[in-house]
Amino acid sequence: MAARDFFRRLGPGIVTGAADDDPSGIGTYSQAGASAGYGFLFTAVWLLPLAFAVQEACARLALVTGQGLASLIKSHMPRWVLVVAVLLVSVANTVNIAADLASMAAALRLIVPVPQVVGVIGFALLLAVTEIYIPYHRYSRVLRWLCLSLLAYVAVMFVAQIDWAAVSLAVLLPHVDFARTSFEILIALAGTTISPYLFFWQAAEEVEERSVSPSDFAVDADHPTGVNHRHVSAMRGDVFSGMLTGVFIMFAIMATTAATLHAGGILNIDSAESAAMALEPIAGQFAGLLFLLGILGVGLLSIPVLAGATAYAIAETFGWRESLELKPRQARAFYAVITVSMAVALGLNLLGIEPMHFLVLAAILNGLTAPLLMILVWWLARSKPLLGKWVSPWWSRWLLGVATVAMLALPVLWLLAP
Q: How far apart, in whole angstroms, are the C-alpha atoms of residue 14 and residue 238?
């Protein structure tokens, strides 16, 4: 693959990887580092290949077929499977949006003393209007730059008092105490890294990328789907870059919160103020502002992805016109789903759940939902009638199978744990 092909193609995967580190992810990773120190750092090493395999399979399905994930499930699975899959992802996404909005509002209050509900409503309106009225090809350029807001945690990792010997030991020789709280954190970490909404978003954006440059997918006798090795290599490089970015940020957040919060005796993050303290080594008294910028950056990046993934899934289910490139009058039902998703998320914020706890709950819900959808992705990605010679290679199917079994096992182990 030529370097120019990779960088020209860079987009869906890198945005998906950055969206993986949404406010729910930041909250979950911070709680893991604060409560267990370096104890869960080993998950970054294990989750990277598994997350890559899942996202690569979703991207491959869409790239080869030109269809989104819900459309493929609709065409090749019983109707009830489609309904269950779309219902699961819609509920998980909406709860995730609610949690992310709550955390953004809580972060805003560190700098501007506005009521929590005012912040939630303001961010929901801003994001809904942006996603509905700004064409995706413009918006996606902004999304890629918003990824830079995550680098604050990387900076902290290099200036905080991190015991790198202990980090190496924790990564190479993992230890899990088999307590129920440990399995809760493992479910949350897996759920926020291998998230259901990313499956649908990755596939939908591969379809969008293909529709933007149809001339690049010439159909002939050698390439009946219009896909060639260059397309697949570029897609794979894009997806790996995105997931590597997401998991590296995950590692950085857990390492810095372990070296700052856990080392300082803060074992439970129950407020935005507590979470912001992890950034004090580089920001000092401006830690709250830096935390706000980081949360706003990833929130503005991830919430449109969450709402968009729900809209794509439901629109594909009912055969509605769907694309973020279309104007609202051209895809009313599609954009109505985005609006309703935001409205329901606002309603959930009235339940009074603490924002930081809300984030971890959303991650756990993702962890319980993901394995059922992963089974469907595994089944479709191995279908030769569907993908022809572009069927997922053995290593991808094996990694996806391991990821699915592991995520199915975690809730069982949680139930059996003392």
A: 6
